[in-house]
Design the sequence.
């Protein structure tokens, strides 16, 4: 019966404590502290937003530069062909060296006809 009395006393103390906490008004210092915390969080959010925007604009600029480097430049107009009197020698491609024939290797006989057990019975 003693554990039951302890349990009932704890419940009663909890109910009384909650009712007292609901009746007490919060002091002004806690309200002003809450306002300060909210304003601080708002400032931090604005700073984070600004940093994100500046980071994204920097990425945008760098990708534009890279796109400019990677895209082919417009080719200048090709001058008209020279008169046929001048001849230009075109390079002639060399013939590829013939491949050597590799001697046929003898087929190796299978080492064992029975498959090998990866885990023998002695090991686990």
Sequence:
């Amino acid at each position: 019966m003693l554990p039951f009395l302890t349990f009932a006393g704890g419940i009663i103390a909890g109910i009384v404590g909650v009712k007292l906490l609901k009746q007490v008004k919060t002091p002004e210092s806690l309200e002003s502290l809450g306002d300060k915390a909210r304003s601080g969080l708002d400032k931090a959010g604005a700073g984070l937003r600004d940093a994100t925007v500046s980071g994204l604009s920097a990425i945008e600029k760098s990708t534009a530069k890279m796109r400019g480097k990677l895209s082919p430049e417009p080719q200048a107009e090709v001058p008209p062909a020279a008169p046929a009197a001048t001849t230009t020698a075109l390079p002639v491609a060399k013939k590829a060296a013939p491949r050597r024939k590799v001697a046929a290797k003898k087929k190796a006989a299978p080492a064992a006809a029975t498959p090998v057990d990866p885990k023998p019975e002695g090991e686990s």
About this structure: Residues 29-70 form one domain.
